[in-house]
Design a protein that fits this description.
359 residues, seven-stranded mixed sheet, three-stranded parallel sheet, globular
């Protein structure tokens, strides 16, 4: 969001102050924002999302606002209870990254009936959500698919690949898959495809083992893995099967272990998603809607999305970039996600040197 846009948004809210209803709904800095994250299998939620959002809520409210946090640990029923509890506690706005988008819809509806806005964060929940903040998920899949085609080169038409997709309960997983297929269909042979409950690396490893048995370890030209955790599981299974010349394996999330695998060449690429940008945008939207500052809220949410029940959801969609051995410096190091010494520990110093990283 440009400074000009924010300035205009602020002016707009002042110009709208004669609206009696809007004036009545306005709140000050002492607002409470709820944050519900889905699981701990993915490292980013505890490392980046939670602390960044908490810091921003404090910053945006001059230290007077409060963040209430809960993690569902992959349990959809638990997350529904957590959301219901936040409604009972009368928080002012809720950010939620759904474990199961469909199962969360009744709880979102209860929040709406209690006049508590729910903003879907990172995963688009069903039900009457008031907003959506996420990365451009179709682009994520497209970037992954493009990376596989680049790695395969002229051999792509006859190349057999394995697709290890995310959790079927996560609507993002379907969008990643669609984005990847938009690049891969009719360009490669998709020999085996799997959906992975809970995004669990262990299950991804089991899928990979099954694919090796079905296709043959020497005939797998590439592995589409929807995220880094599952990429690690797939690579572990390939190595356990005796594969020494690993095929290109994709990922997503730029987890530290994945960046290290990319540096050594075990993992071909990941998708770098600038978590600070997404988390800051989410905090801004949550605080503004909690305060009733709707002109500023609408200025932040310039895109529109839809779920199975709601059209034209105000949305903020953040772009992504491929992360390869050539782009470690210009992505995660440049943006301060990791320091060089965090990546280039003793085990990885030699590999780091080959890509120009010195820890």
């Amino acid at each position: 969001m440009s400074a000009l846009a924010l300035s205009l948004a602020a002016c707009g809210s002042l110009l709208g102050s004669d609206d009696g209803k809007a004036q009545k709904e306005r709140k000050g800095d002492a607002v409470t924002v709820g944050l519900l994250l889905p699981e701990t299998e993915t490292a980013r939620y505890e490392k980046f999302d939670h602390p960044i959002i908490e810091k921003q809520v404090k910053k945006l409210t001059n230290g007077k606002g409060k963040l209430v946090y809960a993690n569902a640990e992959g349990d959809a029923a638990k997350q529904n209870s957590q959301l219901d509890q936040m409604v009972a506690d009368k928080v002012d706005a809720i950010l939620v990254s759904a474990v199961d988008a469909k199962k969360l819809a009744p709880a979102v509806k209860k929040a709406k009936e209690a006049d508590i806005p729910v903003i879907a964060y990172d995963r688009l929940a069903e039900g009457p959500v008031s907003g959506y903040v996420a990365f451009d998920n179709e682009l994520v899949g497209q970037v992954q698919g493009q990376a596989i085609l680049k790695a395969l080169g002229s051999a792509r038409k006859t190349s057999k690949i394995v697709m290890i997709n995310g959790a079927p309960t996560d609507p993002n997983a379907a969008v990643f898959k669609d984005g990847a297929l938009s690049q891969l269909q009719n360009q490669v042979v998709i020999a085996k495809t799997y959906d992975t409950d809970g995004w669990k690396p262990q299950i991804a490893g089991e899928h990979m083992t099954d694919a090796i048995t079905a296709i043959g370890k020497g005939d797998i030209a590439a592995v589409y893995s929807a995220n880094d955790g599952m990429a690690g599981g797939a690579i572990k299974a390939l190595k356990a099967a005796g594969v020494t010349d690993l095929p290109p394996v994709t990922g997503q999330d730029a987890e530290l272990s994945a960046v290290q695998r990319i540096v050594t060449g075990e993992q071909y690429m990941s998708v770098y998603k600038p978590y600070p940008e997404e988390a800051v945008g989410a905090a801004q939207m949550a605080v503004r809607i909690a305060q009733g500052r709707m002109v500023e809220y609408d200025a932040l949410a310039g895109d529109r999305s839809e779920n199975a029940t709601t059209k034209k959801i105000p949305s903020l969609l953040v772009s992504v970039r491929p992360l390869t051995r050539d782009t470690v410096k210009s992505t995660v190091i440049k943006d301060g996600i990791y320091k060089t010494e965090e990546i280039c520990t003793a085990e990885f110093k030699a590999a780091c040197a080959t890509v120009g990283l010195k820890g």
